[in-house]
Amino acid sequence: MENQTVLYTLVLSGLSDLPSLQLPLFLVFLLVYLMTLTGNLLITDSHLQTPIHPRMLFDFHTQERLISIQACITQIYFFLFFAVSAISLLAVMSYDRYVAICRPLG
């Protein structure tokens, strides 16, 4: 008979391992999140009503450190997608600047 154990959740560990650092880390990340949110609210359309709450802030505030595998894969996918998009955009912009400076039309 084979082992039929299926894992549905992952235990989050890392930054919040020390209980004395949970509150300061929560406050730092909350401050960064609120500053980013304030900046984004200044440039967004008021008709968009989708709330976005970072999972890490939720985990710092509560004692539950479990995340489903689907949520973990989704977060990793979007993190990598946006990171690759930003890096690709920066690469195209730098190549455009290189062409404009080093190989002018005239």
TrEMBL record:
One of its GO terms (molecular function) is G protein-coupled receptor activity. It comes from the Eukaryota. One of its GO terms (cellular component) is plasma membrane. It is found in: Cell membrane. One of its GO terms (biological process) is sensory perception of smell. It is a multi-pass membrane protein. InterPro entries: GPCR_Rhodpsn (IPR000276), GPCR_Rhodpsn_7TM (IPR017452), Olfactory_GPCR (IPR050516). Residues 2-106 form the G-protein coupled receptors family 1 profile domain. It holds the Pfam family 7tm_1. Keywords: Cell membrane, G-protein coupled receptor, Membrane, Olfaction, Receptor, Sensory transduction, Transducer, Transmembrane, Transmembrane helix. The chain crosses the membrane at residues 20-43, 76-95. PANTHER family: OLFACTORY RECEPTOR. This is G-protein coupled receptors family 1 profile domain-containing protein. It comes from Hymenochirus boettgeri.
